[in-house]
Amino acid sequence: MIQAFLWGLLANSSLIIGGIIAVRFSLSHRTIGIVMGFGAGTLISAISYELIYEAVTMGKGTGFPAFGLFVGAATFFFADKIIGNFGASNRNKVGAAKSASIVIPMVLAIILDGIPESIVIGLGLFEGGKVSLAMLVAVFISNLPEAIAGSTGMKEGGWSKKKILLLWLFISLFCAFATVAGFELFSGASKEWLSFIQAFAGGAILMMLANSMIPEAYEHGGKLAGVFTVLGFFISVSIVVFENMH
């Protein structure tokens, strides 16, 4: 359990790092967009090879992976829509000022982004006894631009540096406990249900990428965002290949 917590905290520590970068430096919107594109590429690879492929392998012929994919996507879509109605629809928007009045829905929305990824890390520990390096890297990298973009908006909304960093620390710890939940709660699940859970997480993350991260990356990073998305995908796939060789 402690191991799951520490791996989850490591993966989500980039939220704190991203917050520190944003409060200490002024990054251009173009740079943040390019980093978003890179993070999106790593996550697309992780979804394809670490989540969906393994889900299909475990639940072959059962329909559980397909069901999980669409349920995960729909769950994220409607949950995100509900939270967005309370004012947090622009949480990933680069340069959008975040007022104190939307702190609760914004925190809920960011946690919604991070929970599926964190659960999958814990699930990987249960299945094979070790965390997937590709998934860990993908989550770590993809969190960076989200934290930078969010922190930039908080600064422009008048948030103090201390408050910004404490918020990211809280979210990182919460997501680390979600990793523990992924490890503990599903330890008795059958292969079919494990395939459902992995596909569910894949669908939720894919919906998040399509609706927020990729559009933001292109809007601010331009065509270079696409180049770095491909680069992120390539590096993540290379890590998967390297892992399977050993």
Description of the molecule:
The protein is mostly helical and 246 residues long. It has one domain. Helix content is 84%, strand content 0%. Helix 1 runs antiparallel to helix 6 (161-185), helix 2 (29-58) packs antiparallel against helix 7 and helix 2 (29-58) runs parallel beside helix 8.
Shape: globular
Strand content: under 5%
Q: What is the string of SSEs from the N terminus onward?
A: HHHHHHHH
Q: Give the tally of β-strands.
A: 0
Distance between the termini: 25 Å
**Poorly predicted runs of 5 or more residues:** none
Task: Please give the share of residues in helix.
Answer: over 70%
Classification by helices and strands = mainly alpha
Mind summarizing the main beta sheet? none
Mean pLDDT: 83
* Radius of gyration, taken over Cα atoms and rounded to an integer in Å: 17 Å
**Into how many domains do the coordinates divide?**
1
Number of helices: 8
Topology:
Elements: H1 2-24, H2 29-58, H3 64-88, H4 103-128, H5 133-156, H6 161-185, H7 191-221, H8 223-245
Helix pairs in contact: 1-4, 1-5, 1-6, 2-5, 2-7, 2-8, 3-4, 3-7, 4-5, 4-6, 4-7, 5-8, 7-8
List keywords for this structure.
246 residues, 0% strand, mainly alpha, globular
What is the gist of this entry?
With 246 residues, the protein is mainly α. The chain has eight helices and no strands.
